[in-house]
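SAMPLE LOG
Freezer: B-3
Tube label: C17
Construct: single chain, 93 aa
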Amino acid sequence: MIWSTEILKLLAQQEGGYLSDQLGAPHRDDLKCRTITVRAADGREIAILNNDSQHILDDFIRARLVYEAVPLDEKYCRIYRLTPDGLERGKVA
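STRUCTURE (predicted):
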């Protein structure tokens, strides 16, 4: 399992990196469950978070460490990027 400080660190290390929050069934037939991934700026997958990681994303949102950069799209995906505070915390993690 990857911990919240590791996620912040990974995002801070990836200039332009982001969290991808992909909704699964019943919204999509090709994805069984919600999937949250850490991605590089070019979209490369850096880490896949397990199903229990939804609370980490929720905590990041509540603490204003990330913000919704791209709202839910036609592929049922949201993009979250680090806020300045989230970036700072990720650099010292």
